[in-house]
Design goal:
The complex is a heterodimer of chains A (284) and B (197).
Chain A: H1 3-12, H2 20-34, H3 44-58, H4 62-84, H5 94-106, H6 111-134, H7 144-182, H8 184-191, H9 197-207, H10 212-221, H11 224-229, H12 237-264, H13 268-283
Helix pairs in contact in A: 4-5, 6-7, 6-13, 7-12, 9-10, 12-13
Chain B: H1 3-19, H2 23-45, H3 48-67, H4 77-96, H5 120-136, H6 142-153, H7 158-165, H8 169-196
Helix pairs in contact in B: 2-3, 2-4, 2-6, 3-4, 4-7, 6-8, 7-8
Chain lengths: 284, 197
């Protein structure tokens, strides 16, 4: 007989079980014996603590710890912003809000979206500062130092927003420029606008099987210089949209200048309204 | 999540709940481990009646142990139960003054092997082999019998056996090897005796 045979036979002895009736009666007996001692029921908080500690002890290996740390970090960066978003610049939790916003910005990979979000955060901070400073109970001589600090913070926020807007603006203008260069129709129309703009259109219309009478009419109705002079008139719709975006970012930049002036004049309410406008422009 | 981590978590969770004197957690532990503890006691004591009494005592002692706040963070809860069972059996030996010497079990409680596809002759052979092993187990040295029960009948790991018995893993491995050899010799000697008749 080999060890393997012997072990297989020993394993078969697992079939030995106590009587079912004894199992049931002994369970009841045990319950009655312990009924007068021990906790009635653990509180939810106690159960939570137990589960947390048990997980911490079980996951004490470096790989598990690292995984748990990464999970906490990602969750915190994604959701902490929502928790701390209501903290105002004179609150103790404001620093937590700034950290969570920075964490959220750092987890964004799209640079355009990141810049938009940075502008949004900066304008929100500026709005909060303006709201606080508009309160006469706060904005007085007793809080002189804090008011000075908030003024400084406001300027920094506006500066930060302008930097990100200029980045967005340069990117949009580059895109428009590239798309205009890439459009063969527009460049041809531009180059031939004085000499053969009408001819060009006639050829194009003939290629599209339009009758000569109709072609003549359309050429007569639409002056050649008007057709060729406006590059945007021949641009596809999405290119027109990009051009609008460029205008909007420039507009946002100029509104921020206005905001700064209003803030310096201590017209906080109007400054807040203008900041909201910037916020809307950037969101769109 | 790896199953090992889940098992570890559950074990830590149960120990923590027991430390907080949670009765429901204790009853759950009883449901999960009563059969294993019974089997361990039965193969060490050799009598069903006594095994029933001692198993009941083991769980009550474990609960009192928890109540007195003396629950040490054993590597596993299973190891703790076996330790208490082991000590209870030692106390039982002291009280009765004799260790198990007779064969394991009575005629009323034969092991049933449920295998419909098995040839009747083969089934009979298997049953007789099992009865043979059952009858030879009590003849082994106490520590040999104990490691065989824990390792091959109750599926404890080497680490758990070492924790329960207070021996190193290497010692447990050697002990298991010797115990298996001793049991095989006993079984083979019996087979030879039967053949010569």
């Amino acid at each position: 007989m080999t060890d393997k045979d012997l072990i297989a036979k020993l394993n078969s002895l697992k079939n030995i079980d106590p009587d079912q009736s004894w199992l049931t009666s002994n369970r009841e007996l045990l319950i009655s014996q312990i009924s007068n001692s021990g906790a009635l029921k653990l509180s939810t908080w106690k159960v939570f603590i137990i589960n947390f500690n048990s997980f911490a002890k079980a996951a004490s290996r470096p790989a598990y710890s690292l995984g748990a740390f990464a999970l906490i970090l990602i969750t915190a960066s994604l959701f902490s912003h929502q928790v701390f978003s209501s903290a105002k610049p004179n609150d103790s939790l404001y620093i937590a809000r700034i950290i969570s916003e920075k964490a959220k910005l750092n987890t964004m990979f799209n640079s355009d979206e990141r810049n938009k979000l940075a502008v949004q955060f900066a304008t929100e901070h500026a709005q909060d500062i303006s709201v606080i400073l508009s309160d006469p109970q706060f904005n007085n001589d007793s809080n002189k130092d804090q008011v000075a600090k908030l003024n400084e913070s406001f300027n920094e926020e506006i500066k930060s927003a302008k930097t990100h807007i200029s980045y967005l603006s340069s990117k949009v203008s580059n895109e428009v420029k590239n798309s205009v260069d890439a459009s063969g129709t527009v460049s041809m129309a531009n180059s031939l606008k004085d000499n053969s703009g009408v001819k060009l259109l006639e050829e194009k219309n003939l290629n599209q099987n339009i009758t000569p009478a109709a072609t003549t009419t359309s050429v007569l109705v639409m002056p050649a210089n008007l057709i060729a002079s406006s590059a945007t008139a021949t641009l596809p719709i999405d290119k027109v949209g990009e051009s609008d975006k460029e205008n909007q970012t420039v507009n946002a930049d100029s509104i921020l200048e206005e905001v700064k002036q209003l803030f310096d004049k201590k017209d906080y309410n109007k400054a807040v309204d203008k900041l909201k406008e910037v916020d809307e422009i950037i969101k769109n | 999540m790896p199953s090992n981590l889940i098992e570890k978590f559950k074990n830590k969770q149960v120990i923590s709940k027991l430390k907080s004197h949670d009765k429901e957690a204790f009853i759950k532990v009883y449901d999960e481990s009563v059969k294993d503890i019974y089997r361990f006691v039965y193969f060490k004591i050799g009598s069903r009646e006594e095994a029933n009494d001692i198993t009941s005592m083991v769980f009550l002692k474990t609960w009192n142990h928890i109540q007195n706040n003396t629950l040490v963070d054993s590597k596993t809860l299973r190891a703790l139960l076996y330790k208490i069972a082991r000590n209870t059996i030692i106390d039982h030996y002291r009280e009765t003054g004799n260790k198990m010497s007779a064969s394991l079990d009575d005629e009323e409680h034969k092991i049933d092997i449920l295998d419909e596809a098995q040839d009747p002759q083969e089934k009979m052979d298997k049953e007789s082999n099992l009865e043979l092993i059952k009858s030879k187990l009590p003849l082994l040295k106490e520590e040999y019998r104990e490691v065989i029960i824990m390792k091959f009948i109750n599926d404890l790991t080497l680490e758990e056996i070492s924790d329960i018995s207070g021996k190193t893993k290497g010692n447990v491995r050697v002990l298991l090897h010797r115990a298996l050899s001793a049991l095989r010799e006993l079984v083979e000697a019996d087979n030879k005796g039967a053949d010569s008749l």
